[in-house]
UniProtKB/TrEMBL annotation:
Quaternary structure annotation from Swiss-Prot or TrEMBL: Homodimer.
Name of a matching Pfam family: HMGL-like
Protein name (record): 2-isopropylmalate synthase
SUPFAM superfamilies per record: 2-isopropylmalate synthase LeuA, allosteric (dimerisation) domain, Aldolase
Function: Catalyzes the condensation of the acetyl group of acetyl-CoA with 3-methyl-2-oxobutanoate (2-ketoisovalerate) to form 3-carboxy-3-hydroxy-4-methylpentanoate (2-isopropylmalate).
Alphabetized PROSITE patterns for the sequence: AIPM_HOMOCIT_SYNTH_1 (PS00815), AIPM_HOMOCIT_SYNTH_2 (PS00816), PYR_CT (PS50991)
GO MF entry, a single one: 2-isopropylmalate synthase activity
Cofactor(s) it depends on: Mn(2+)
Gene name for this UniProt entry: leuA
Length: 516
């Protein structure tokens, strides 16, 4: 695949450079799982590890090589015969195997890390690429720290690698130093000057030290590269590598100016991101492009209003195109009426204009005080509004006799429209006794569909929160009440639910709303 084609090879190095990120080590099984997903989603080359690094790395590369059905599997090797032999052994059983060998070319690396002269490194390139090529057909050679290498020497090194049989030439921005203009020009110059450059694929490999990894990779493609090395979630050494999901979507969304396709199924990107995040225990930052939790979330009223009118007002790609079910309109202090009304509709409420305005004001007050406003908060706010608007009965006092001696009984005083009524009742347990007492004052035909108690906090002095759901024909009323005394919370929740039911009935027949 030379520069004249419009297809870019996606080379994923999550399992090699990604794993070099401090703390991101994956187990053998996790690596197999990630590799299987990369293979299925259409990644062209999976760099599965650095076989000389450890027996574990060797085994992982070898097993991934055996299992991969579509992708080429690459193993990394320094410019050292033992490394190359080990990488060759690891990818031996792959349907398509690659040895990726690299050596430094920059003056600073030659002087301080390699302690070799330029001529010595040229000899090493010649010998090691030849060795690799004798083991496999597909050999990638990388000039480590290419972007800090004088162009004349870089061209000489690349020419040596091509002559020795390299089929892919990678020019990494190892330390994340390049800018897009530099990086694109480097590829243009090398491709123009090196004999045989038109017979190989040039590759980018960018690090994100200046936050330019994706931009540099795309500039490299504009300069003639046709392979991009990248990682899921941008994982990698130091600030990471170019993020695969960003590269794939940039090429997909901006095909008008970057007319190069990939074979990656973009709807699997979110899944891959979650898998790698779980395997490495590295959380994905909320505002990460493409796969972050907020990538398709809108909180501000103006954006939400636009999104409700037309989804292209504030989204340049659909959530479905990257495997996210839907856009989310997050309710918060920046939300407006349009989104609030839409949320209420989704939650099953249809309020008149005045009630809507009232609920919206209360919602804004709540959002000013609370960081996250959940659907349940909005439900409670509207339910509370409905209930308090029709809150005709209130629990004034409750005395319960419970325990083993039985029968359990409850003495309950309710305030209904300002009139205090006291009743007594027995029951099969204290809660039953309370509910029977309530029914004496407020008879109804509703079925108790849910009675649930849970502790709001920990400890024996915790507040008990009781949830009740009553169903009467097609009318449903739910209510919650909290009190340090579970039985008092039960009485309050039950009365609140009946209040709501009465209000619902009352909308049809106000006189019959409460039959005390
Ligand atoms: C830019 C990159 O991402 S490069 C890849 C980096 N990844 C890793 O290093 C992860 C895996 N690494 C390892 O497990 C180990 O470092 C090993 C197994 C590769 C080597 O371990 P050791 O033999 O103990 O060497 P150590 O790590 O201390 O030093 C690296 C040696 O490799 C040499 N070296 C580094 N790169 C290359 C290269 N491309 N070709 C040849 N030699 C190299 C260094 O000069 C140094 O040699 P020296 O010991 O003669 O000075
Ligand atoms: C091994 C090489 C390709 C590398 O990771 C780098 O230069 O960043
Ligand atoms: Mg790297």
């Amino acid at each position: 695949m030379t520069a004249s084609t419009d297809r870019v090879v996606i080379f994923d190095t999550t399992l090699r450079d990604g794993e070099q990120c401090p703390g991101a080590t994956m187990t053998f099984e996790e690596k197999l799982e990630v590799a299987a997903l990369l293979d299925r989603m259409g990644v062209d080359v999976i760099e599965a590890g650095f076989p000389i690094a450890s027996n574990g790395d060797f085994e992982a590369v070898a097993e991934i090589a055996r299992r991969a059905e579509n992708a080429t599997v690459a193993g990394l090797a320094r410019a050292i015969p033992a490394d190359i032999a080990r990488a060759g052994e690891a990818v031996r059983h792959a349907r398509k195997g690659r040895i990726h060998t690299f050596v430094s070319t920059s003056p600073i690396h030659l002087a301080h890390q390699m302690k070799k002269t330029e001529d010595q490194v040229i000899e090493i390139i010649q010998a090691t690429v030849t060795q690799a090529r004798n083991l496999v057909e597909d050999v990638e050679w990388s000039a480590m720290d290419a972007t800090r290498t004088p162009i004349d020497y870089l061209c000489r090194a690349v020419e040596t690698a091509i002559k020795a049989g390299a089929t892919t030439i990678n020019l990494p921005d190892t330390v994340g130093y390049a800018t897009p203009v530099d990086y694109g020009n480097m590829f243009r110059q090398v491709r123009e000057r090196v004999p045989g450059a038109d017979k190989v694929i040039f590759s980018t490999h960018c690090h994100d030290d200046l936050g330019l990894a994706v931009a540099n990779s795309l500039a490299g493609v504009a300069g003639g590269a046709r392979q991009i090395e990248c990682t899921i979630n941008g994982l990698g050494e130091r600030a990471g590598n170019a993020a695969l999901e960003e590269i794939v979507m940039a090429l997909k969304v901006r095909r008008d100016v970057l007319p190069y396709g990939t074979g990656v199924e973009s709807t699997m990107l979110t899944r891959a991101s979650r898998l790698v995040s779980a395997a490495t225990s590295f959380p994905v930052q909320y505002n990460k492009a493409i796969v972050g939790k907020n990538a398709f979330a809108h909180e501000s009223g103006i954006h939400q209003d636009g999104m409700l009118k037309h989804n292209e007002t504030y989204e340049i790609m659909t959530p479905a195109s990257v495997g996210v079910t839907k856009t989310s309109l997050v309710m918060g202090k920046h939300s407006g009426r349009a989104a609030f009304k839409d949320k209420l509709k989704a939650l099953g409420y249809e309020l008149g204009e005045n009630a809507l305005q009232d609920a919206f004001t209360r919602f804004k007050d709540l959002a000013d005080r609370k960081k996250h406003v959940y659907d349940e908060d909005i439900e409670a706010l509207v339910d509370g509004q409905i209930a308090s608007a029709h809150d005709r009965a209130k629990v004034l006092s409750l005395t319960v006799i419970a325990g083993t001696m039985g029968p359990q009984s409850a003495t309950l005083t309710l305030d209904i429209d300002g009139v205090h009524t006291t009743v007594q009742s027995t029951g099969n347990g204290p809660v039953d006794a309370i509910f029977n007492a309530v029914c004496k004052v407020m008879p109804h035909q509703a079925r108790l569909a849910l009675y649930q108690v849970h502790a709001v906090t920990e400890g024996t002095d915790a507040q008990a929160e009781v949830s009740i759901r009553l169903e009467e024909g097609d009318k449903i009323a739910t209510a919650r009440a909290a009190d340090p005394d579970t039985l008092v919370a039960s009485a309050k929740a039950y009365v609140a639910a009946i209040n709501k039911l009465a209000a619902k009935r009352g909308q049809l027949n106000p006189q019959a709303a409460m039959t005390a």
